[in-house]
Structures are given as C-alpha cells and as structure tokens.
C-alpha cells in the first residue's frame, strides 16, 4: 500500500485551486427537494384517495420510492451544512428530507458526520465499515453463513440492500443514543419515533394493501437505491488506519442525468475530501484530484462496481478480501483488484493456509 495521507492533507493542497464560492452554502438545491416532495405527496394522495387496481399503484409506488431515495441524498447534503448554515433550519430541513427513511438529523450527524467521516474504513471505529475476518469468526452464526458459497452469499447480500439502510439506521440509534447528553436524548428519541408514528398512522388510515404501495414498497426501493451507492462507496476499498480518502473511498460514474437527479452523490471520494462543500462543485474537485494524484484516485463505472461487489467477498484480512468458504483471496482497490478484468479477479494464495488457521483458531476459541 502507498503511504497514507489524511483527508486534511489533500484538502489543504486543493483548496487554493478552488473558487471561494465553492465553500459557501447553495440553498438553490432546495428547489430539487421541493420537486421531490411534491411528487411524493401527490403520489401518496393518489394511492390513498383513488380506488383502482393495485397494478395501477405499482408504477406510482416506484416513483415514490425513487423520490424517497433522492430526498435522502439531499438530506445528507443538508445535514453537512452545504445547503443552509443555521443549525435549527439545517436540522428541520434535514429531518423533512430524511423523514421517508425515518432517520433523525441529530443521530445522522453523530453517526455519519462525526464518526464515519472521521474514522472512514477504520476497522474498529467506523460504524459503516465491513468487519474483518477475525471479528466475523467470533460469531457462531456468521461462521456458519461464511461457509456458504460466495455466489449464494452475494445473492442474499444484494437482496438485503432493499432493507439494509433502515436496519442499520435503527442499529445506529441503539448504539449512539447513550452517547448523547442526557438532556438531548429526548429530542433524539423524538426525531427517531415521529417518522415511524407517521407511517404507522398511515397504515391505520388506508389499510394494509394501500400502505404497501404507499410506504413499504417505496421504502424497499429507496433502500435499494441508497445502499447500491453506499455499498460501492468503500466496500471495494481496503481498511486503513489513517483516513486517506484516495485509498479508502471510491467514486462511481453514472450518466449526467442520474447525477442531476441524485445531487452528485456518485462523487464520493470528493465528498470525503470536502464534506462541507456543496456537491455542485465536486466535478471541479475531481478534475483537480486527477491532475495532482491520478495514480491514487479510484473511480469505476457504477454497474462495474456492483459487479465487483458481487464477485468479491466482504471479510477483510490484512487489507485484502478473503473467502473462507473457498480459500480464495481477492485484492481490494489499490491492493491488486483489477477492475478491468472482473471475470477472473480471485487468486489462490499459498499463505491462505495461515488465514485458515486463524479461522480455525478463532472457531476453537469461541466454541470453548
């Protein structure tokens, strides 16, 4: 692995080359959020008030789901302070944007801004990092799961993207609630429970059939879209002790119109260098990164990144990815993963017996 640099080191090098306006909030981004909010409300009212065949509800439900996801992308930007700076307004607008995903602004800033961004891809401190083989082997259930063939695990892993964000958000609430000041915990709890009260109230009002199309299916669609991005952000990158975004983050490329719809969420390395900058300016940051450090920068077409995720296992062992069920070792980005040859990206290594012996040792230790 190359020498690691902190995100602050890169930012200091690039900041003089960026316009001053790039570091100011861009409230015009709210117009896009308003459009998605109108589409969402109109879709909900149409399904709720019009009695037709559920087949008619299906396309409306899918549109609502894509709007849920886009509002989440905007909420992410708002809560980084890149749209408005006043704390009360930032949190209010962030709460509205994250309402469909039922994630409160105080929890999100604690979990995402203050922890994930500070400790990105640190195997112990990043709440979003995938665990190491050593950690996985401490669990009897996970040891069983990782005996399954990689294609089977990949299938269920991709299916889980449709609910992974919601489940992880609830888990983060449980993990971080106790870390808030006792005087702030009621507000954090209220932010978490109010959206669910809304959606449960909707179930009581419209009944289970319409509720499926008004909330459950859109939530699954939103989870799938959001997690398709999030799962490519770091899970092909190695773990790092130093938070180096050019090593531990990946930018994916999508058609321009998708970037417009998703508020440039694809520019993830750029976001980790300048989380307080509006994503409107990330194309300029990308250009500068490729001028200064082209050999360190990771970018991949979105569909190829998803294919690479399907073909690689998730447990980390010494910064590479290992598959306990087959004994194959897969390079991470910058550690041997050849994104141009995704048909054959696994390799057998002689020293995998060492990894296997660790696995066996952990099994014996846990079984005692």
From TrEMBL:
GO terms for molecular function: oxidoreductase activity, acting on paired donors, with oxidation of a pair of donors resulting in the reduction of molecular oxygen to two molecules of water. Keywords: Membrane, Transmembrane, Transmembrane helix. Signal peptide: none annotated. It comes from the Bacteria. One of its GO terms (biological process) is lipid biosynthetic process. Residues 55-302 form the Fatty acid desaturase domain. GO terms for cellular component: membrane. The chain crosses the membrane at residues 30-50, 56-76, 154-176, 188-205, 211-230. This is Fatty acid desaturase.
């Amino acid at each position: 692995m190359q020498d690691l640099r902190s995100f602050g080191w890169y930012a200091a090098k690039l900041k003089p080359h960026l316009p001053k306006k790039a570091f100011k909030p861009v409230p015009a981004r709210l117009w896009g959020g308003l459009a998605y909010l109108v589409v969402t409300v109109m879709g909900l009212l149409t399904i709720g008030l019009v009695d037709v065949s559920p087949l008619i509800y299906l396309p409306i439900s899918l549109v609502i789901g894509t709007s849920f996801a886009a509002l989440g992308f905007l909420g992410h930007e708002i809560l980084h302070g890149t749209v408005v700076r006043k704390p009360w307004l930032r949190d209010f607008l962030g709460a509205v944007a994250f309402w469909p995903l039922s994630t409160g602004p105080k929890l999100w800033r604690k979990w995402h801004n203050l922890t994930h961004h500070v400790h990105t891809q640190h195997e112990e401190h990043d709440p979003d990092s995938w665990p190491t083989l050593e950690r996985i082997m401490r669990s009897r259930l996970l040891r069983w799961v990782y005996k399954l063939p990689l294609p089977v695990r990949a299938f269920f892993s991709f299916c889980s993207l449709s609910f992974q964000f919601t489940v992880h958000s609830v888990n983060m609430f449980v993990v971080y609630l106790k870390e808030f000041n006792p005087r702030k915990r009621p507000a954090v709890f209220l932010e978490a429970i109010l959206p669910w009260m809304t959606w449960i109230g909707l179930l009581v009002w419209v009944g289970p059939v319409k509720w499926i199309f008004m909330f459950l299916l859109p939530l699954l669609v939103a989870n799938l879209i959001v997690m398709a991005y999030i799962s490519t952000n770091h899970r092909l990158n190695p773990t790092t002790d130093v938070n180096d975004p050019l090593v531990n983050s990946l930018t994916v490329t999508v058609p321009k119109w998708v970037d417009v719809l998703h508020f440039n969420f694809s520019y993830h390395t750029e976001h980790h260098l300048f989380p307080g900058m509006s994503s409107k300016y990330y194309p300029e940051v990308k250009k500068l990164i490729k001028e200064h450090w082209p050999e360190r920068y990771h970018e991949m077409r979105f569909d190829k990144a998803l294919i690479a995720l399907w073909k690689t296992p998730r447990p980390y062992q010494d910064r590479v990815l290992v598959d306990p069920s087959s004994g194959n070792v897969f390079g991470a980005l910058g550690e041997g993963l050849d994104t141009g040859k995704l048909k054959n990206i696994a390799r057998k290594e002689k020293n995998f017996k060492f990894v296997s012996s660790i696995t066996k040792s952990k099994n014996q230790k846990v079984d005692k």
